[in-house]
């Protein structure tokens, strides 16, 4: 049962605060839905610059026009580094964007998607077809509406890839940013398994980055930060590649392009061989932050 709530709208300007004194807005041309799911506030809007835009608890989650900045980088850095990923786990990601990118790899046989809030999946099916592109109904996908922490701790299923496609820390996602959860994820990965996650803005949230990387390093031998740009999140954004032995830095641009060609992956809008290496090249202030 859902109940209507008032969205965080100043007139028709949807605001996003990166810090208490720094943020930006996107103008809504039409509000499709706004309600409380029982877990979080959910909104869907039409916008001129981003197309259909999805928010949770007043924060921008994804949009049809810029989702590729986030999902392509979150998924392909790991999936291309892995020789032949077959089984993947997505925690969060109820919009289906991460699953859609994973299914571009022909070796993928099965994806388990664990989303805590059924309303997110329902919203995606109603409004975000250009994000999931049918992946939520792919027969290779097992959708589980339950708590991601509990699922990972209770599961014995091995995975080649784990994608943490989460909201920022707070509310239902808080325990998914703990050393206990990261260790549980590491235990679900095979010898060459890889986990990726988004972390934060190095300008707006440097402490969150330092704290998250410290916790990840308790669970993984290799924690490799990489950068991308996500316009919906305010610009420069840090992600992390985590494994016990797989290392994306070993792949040259030519090797990445060869794997993309071998796997028949075409028409990506962001990720390619050159961008693979560029994402791993960190400016000095980020090097100091992640050291």
Textual characterization of the structure:
This protein has 10 helices and 14 strands. Helix content is 30%, strand content 34%. The chain has 291 residues and is α/β, with parallel strands linked by helices. The protein folds into 2 domains: 3-63, Spermidine synthase, tetramerisation domain (Spermidine Synthase, Chain: A, domain 2, Roll), CATH 2.30.140; 67-290, Rossmann fold. The strands form 2 sheets. Strands 1, 2, 3, 4, 5, 6 and 7 form a 7-stranded antiparallel sheet that branches. It has a 7-stranded mixed sheet with strand order 10-9-8-11-12-14-13, with helices on both faces. It is globular and about 50 Å long. It has helices at 67-81, 97-102, 118-127, 129-132, 148-154, 179-188, 206-216, 253-262, 273-280, 284-290, and strands at residues 3-4, 9-10, 13-19, 22-36, 41-47, 51-56, 59-63, 87-92, 110-115, 141-145, 159-165, 189-200, 222-230, 235-243. 43% of the residues are buried.
Task: Describe this protein with a few key phrases.
291 residues; alpha/beta; Spermidine Synthase, Chain: A, domain 2; Rossmann fold; 2 domains; seven-stranded antiparallel sheet; seven-stranded mixed sheet; globular; disordered N terminus
How many strand elements?
Answer: 14
Largest sheet: 7 strands, antiparallel
Q: Give the H and E element order.
A: EEEEEEEHEHEHHEHEHEHEEHHH
Instruction: State the separation between the terminal residues, measured CA to CA.
Output: 46 Å
- Portion of residues in beta strands equals 25-35%
The CATH homologous superfamily of the largest domain is termed Vaccinia Virus protein VP39
CATH topology of the largest domain: Rossmann fold
Average the pLDDT over all residues and give the rounded result: 95
Uncertain residue segments: 1-11
């Amino acid at each position: 049962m859902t109940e209507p709530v008032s969205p965080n709208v100043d007139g028709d300007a949807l605001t996003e605060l990166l810090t208490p004194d720094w943020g930006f807005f996107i103008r809504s041309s039409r509000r499709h839905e706004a309600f409380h799911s029982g877990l979080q506030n959910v909104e869907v809007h039409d916008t001129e610059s981003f197309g259909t835009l999805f928010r949770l608890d007043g924060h921008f989650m994804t949009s049809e026009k810029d989702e590729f900045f986030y999902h392509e980088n979150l998924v392909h850095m790991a999936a291309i580094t892995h020789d032949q990923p077959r089984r993947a786990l997505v925690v969060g990601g109820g919009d289906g964007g991460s699953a859609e990118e994973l299914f571009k790899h022909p070796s993928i046989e099965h994806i388990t998607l664990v989303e805590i809030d059924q309303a997110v999946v329902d919203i995606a099916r109603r409004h975000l077809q250009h994000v999931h592109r049918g992946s939520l109904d792919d027969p290779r996908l097992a959708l589980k509406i339950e708590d991601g922490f509990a699922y990972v701790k209770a599961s014995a299923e091995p995975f080649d890839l784990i994608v943490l496609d989460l909201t920022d820390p707070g509310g239902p996602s808080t325990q998914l940013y703990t050393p206990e959860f990261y260790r549980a994820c590491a235990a679900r990965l095979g010898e060459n398994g890889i986990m990726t996650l988004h972390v934060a803005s190095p300008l707006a949230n440097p402490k969150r980055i330092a704290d998250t990387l410290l916790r990840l390093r308790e669970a993984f031998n290799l924690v490799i930060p990489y950068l991308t740009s996500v316009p919906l999140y305010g610009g420069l954004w840090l992600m992390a590649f985590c494994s016990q032995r797989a290392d994306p830095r070993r792949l040259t641009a030519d090797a990445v392009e060869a794997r993309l060609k071998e796997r028949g992956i075409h028409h990506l809008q962001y990720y390619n061989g050159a961008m693979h290496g560029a994402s791993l090249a960190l400016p000095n202030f980020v090097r100091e932050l992640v050291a």
